[in-house]
Amino acid sequence: MQKELTEGLDLLELGCHGSMELVARGNAAPAVLPLKTVPVGLPPVLARTQDELEGFLSQPQCLNIHDLRRSQKYIARERRPERLFHSDVCPVQTTIVVERNPATGELLGYKEECLSDSSKTSRNSLSLHRMPGPSYTDLRGSSTNYPFWPGGMDEPVLDKLEDREGDSAAINLDTELLTAAPGLADGMTFDTGAADPKPPPPPESNTAPDVINLADILADTDDLDLGDSDEEEAEQKKKDKENNKESGAVTQLGKSESLENLVQVKEDQTTTEVTKKKTEEKKESWAVKVDVNSPVTEFYKRVPNMAYKWPFEPDVFQKQAILHLEKHESVFVAAHTSAGKTVVAEYAIALSLKHMTKTVYTSPIKALSNQKFRDFKTTFGDVGLITGDVQINTTASCLIMTTEILRSMLYNGSDTIRDLEWVIFDEVHYINDSERGVVWEEVLIMLPQHVNIILLSATVPNHMEFADWVGRTKRKPMYVISTAKRPVPLEHFLYTGNSNKTSTELFLLVDAKGSFLTTGYSKAVAAKKERASQSSQSFGAKGTRGGNPSQDKNVWLSVIEMLKKKDKLPMVAFTFSKRRIEDNINNLQSVDLTTQAEKSEIHIFFHRCIQRLKGNDRQLPQVLHMEQVLKRGLGVHHSGILPILKEVVEMLFQRGMVKILFATETFAMGVNMPARTVVFDSTRKHDGTCMRNLSAGEYIQMAGRAGRRGLDTTGTVIILCKGDVPETSELHKMMLGKPTTLESQFRLTNTMILNLLRVEQLRVEDMIRRSFSEFHTQREEVNHRKAMEELKGHMSKVKDIECYLCSVDLERYYKACKDYQELKQRLQEVVLSHPAAIKALSAGRVVVIDNSRHSNVLGAVLQSSLGSNNTRIFTVLILANRGDNLAAGEITPSDNHRVKPVKMRQLFIPEGVCWHGVVEVKAADIAVITTKTIKLEADKIVKDVKKREQPRFRDDPPSQSVTMVTQELLRLSEQNPEGLSGLDPTKDLHLRDIDLVEQFRSLQFMQEEFGQFQCVNCPKFDEHFSQISSNMGLKEEYRRLQFLLSDQSLQLLPEYQQRVEMLTRLHYVDAQGSVQLKGRVACEISNHEVMITELVFDNVLTDLHPADIAALLSSMVFEQKNCSAPELTDTLKQGMEKILQKAEEIGRVQKEVGMKIPVGDYKESFHFNLMEVVFEWARGMPFAEITSLTDVQEGIIVRCIQRLYELLRDVRNAARIIGDPTLFKKMEEAMSIIKRDIVFAASLYTQ
């Protein structure tokens, strides 16, 4: 065959350059090879190549590089500046609308209508009516898009802009306009000359003026009327003069302090958001409690055509939820575990399919998203999944995603939001998570108004409060539906056995009705004590509180044997240590709970699942070990397990093949995999900082996995008492205590601030104000506004004090008194908490008492003690008039908030017969600690006074010890009517704080200045001071309400200002708050955005190999602190040093602006211990080999690389924004080299 092919082909030379081509041989005689297309050479008219080369070599001056005329040619270019201009095509201004008969639907005709939103796009508008963006941004949106207007906020309407107080009135269009553009140093100077700023008088004519000044229109808040005659204007002026006379001397106050001027305050943008309608609405809760105790009447008549039907009859709470969903109302379903909350979500999805809209189902963790995708895909079919690295059927009617992805879609203005009808938030109690809880609040605030909300949660104590916050924020009622009890009740037991002989030691602690049985606890304690005493007699004491780890094997063997006998399998064993889980599995090598048929089914299923892995990955030690464990009916589920193996375990557990599952508490997070029994290895866990008992919420969440609806009558929960039996109070609090309340974890992040700053219409202050942390302030906003309106009415009736002495400086005197009183009280608290002052206030010290009951009264200290809240209480014998009702032990109320005039007051001297009394006072009531002391017998005085309070001894004379002290106090008062000198803080009390000394000097100067005021000479001074005090109280109350309604009252406002200052210094925003290029890049990055942006702009990553880039960026996503140190290359060491150096710079800036993040803590947030693993993985090393480079478990490595892939994608998008093609290509390459093999194996739930 080869011979035949070679005999039928010839070589043909093409041209004169030696290139050959195979051609078919013809019938002619064989020619001499090779054949030529130019057999006689080139025509003689062309120069030979050899001759040209010889000419260049012999005469180099002939080369073109020396010909200036040919090499430096100038081509004239026609100037056309219009080519620099770009103008979009004008959008269509009108549309054709069909006219139909509303009754019959008959087509009547067509008409053309104007489009008001034709010029709005995703780059300039937040309206839902704006033009859609490009199709490739439909799902994720773009960082250049505006988000849609959040529901619950008032959209700015052009007609209402003039009504905003402060916009037109605060700006003088003649004098306060800017002359320089923002960001520029110089601008335009307008020479106004010496023109009179007053407008010329209007012409004397009845005709309307031809030109109207816009500033005059905007400055006037009343309706504009140009038709008034001169006579009407004169009458109006007379009325105005009469009104001014009636107002009295109010206008005589200074402009800054006038009550009328104070009323006309500038309101914040946030204070104008509440419309007039809202201020007039009655106070009501936005959360509506739905009754689920009574059956739903005529349910199928009210919902004749259900969107989805189940093979079972829905419960009452499910029917109530369906009724509200049919009305397009938002619901909050707080039901017990396994009650059937998913039914509500399924009906919402079915409604969206019926209405041809979309539903988004959000979950806190990726694993739960995958499981829900499989469940809903089986039920509905048209379901999509969006995670960090997987996108399946993104145009589906039901999209399942994590909450972080939905937040990104909202900020980036995804057009998918337009079609949303429902957003389902599963596991809402996850909002308590300190790291990710803020995401839930952001999403709830940013959702547009047309989107309805479904909240699914376990039972929480404050579900009404949380629903009220959501309803108030979105301005729509939230219907709260909760269940009263579990469908499958739980029974809680204590297990004290540790062998087959003692496997019957199972004691009921809480029965199915929820009653705590102390007899069961007593029996458990007795059984534990009996075994401990026998053990100590034979072998010595061995019992410890946490149990002996060497005996764990016997305990588990006995528990398993007991559960097998009672038919209580399958079982979930919650263990709070991954190492202990592995130890338990290794100790139970002898346990085999499956039949041969089940082993065969497990073998087939397991190998079918791992077929998608490569050959090397199938031989991983963890894969081989898991197969052997599963065949014995055991399972392991924790974060260190490979994701695909965790899914295999979950699926086998659902099939009933896994009888005993050892898991951490993450297994209880929303995974619908109930068991018959739940066993707690311990009731204590390490939360990252310390060992503590399980909270009631944690215990209920995990214990709720017990009891399968429809299969078990009760669920069994067992606590292993390996060591001592836990205390009764701890068990009662854990089992029957209230679940964890929903608490706000809202915090400011740089990404949130930058995303909101790039949109002028949205403010960060509005986001803070609407957070759950500010809920109580937001709820009282209407009341505060009503109180302000009432204050305006009171303040309008206030008249000034008509006094020639007090009108001069009475107001200044009041302010001075207030400042003096506040400073004195503050210093008094500091002094009286000093050890020297407490020592000085011992028995016998003479003091001056001044409060609402006793004014400038001399007394002697008898004793001191600590009261409630560690406040020190002093028992003092004071002078009094006979007949004053002073009971011993009475604590006189202090009146430190009322401003009192500071003037020279004489010490109190009793009228008539000198008497005494014993009172208890606080430190703030002691005005002066004098230098005098009196010898006294405190115990005898107290006993004598208490004795004479009894009716039968009331007329007895006081004892000699009381009389001596009383006479001495009276003598001191009469000899020193102006007062006694007090202890000097520096000399006597030895206070050395410079600030305190300066404040004491200031207090002394303020006291000396009170003699310079003229108002104290007024004969009616007390009356006038009381009047000014009342007037100033109104002002201060108005200022307080104004403060509560302003942004200044927000708790996170100082941190926001600090973060903005930090971003300004690092050039992410400019001085005007506009987001710069670095800020736009940071918006693309979801993790450590500031650090990564700095690395990108410093070109740290551009010159590195993609494998080095991936290794360095792994420090941003790896979170484990304690693991083996890596062996790094020189390039990676240099990169690590640059990251730490940049972290030092950023940390210093954060410290300078006042942020409470220590530089060391910020540097420690980057973990470099997995860099070697990622580097070798990027270079192609098999997964089986990289596990030997570190002691980090396989599952954590996989999760880290998956998160790294998402981060690399963010940096790739950032490179596209700044126009760096080199970095863009390297990030693409880095993404491709790490996305392989077992790390990115497809989820079993998506297949």
Break the fold down into its secondary structure elements and pairings.
Elements: H1 2-7, E1 9-14, E2 19-24, E3 35-36, H2 49-58, H3 68-71, E4 94-100, E5 107-114, H4 214-219, H5 230-246, H6 259-263, H7 276-280, E6 287-289, H8 299-302, H9 316-326, E7 330-334, H10 342-355, E8 358-363, H11 366-380, E9 383-386, E10 391-392, E11 398-402, H12 403-411, E12 420-425, H13 437-446, E13 452-457, H14 463-474, E14 478-482, E15 490-495, E16 506-510, H15 518-539, H16 552-565, E17 571-574, H17 578-587, H18 596-609, H19 615-618, H20 621-631, E18 634-637, H21 643-655, E19 660-663, E20 677-680, E21 684-686, E22 691-693, H22 696-703, E23 715-720, H23 728-736, H24 750-757, H25 764-769, H26 775-779, H27 781-796, H28 806-832, H29 835-840, E24 845-849, E25 857-866, E26 872-881, E27 890-891, E28 914-922, E29 926-933, H30 938-948, H31 960-975, H32 994-1009, H33 1021-1044, H34 1053-1065, H35 1077-1083, H36 1089-1097, H37 1106-1113, H38 1130-1152, H39 1159-1164, H40 1171-1178, H41 1183-1186, H42 1194-1218, H43 1221-1234
Parallel strand pairs: 1-3, 6-14, 7-13, 7-14, 8-11, 8-12, 9-11, 12-13, 15-23, 17-19, 17-20, 18-19, 20-23, 27-28
Antiparallel strand pairs: 1-2, 4-5, 9-10, 15-16, 21-22, 24-25, 24-29, 25-26, 26-28
Keywords: ATP-binding, Cytoplasm, Helicase, Hydrolase, Nucleotide-binding, RNA-binding
Catalytic activity: ATP + H2O = ADP + phosphate + H(+)
Domain Helicase C-terminal: 580-757
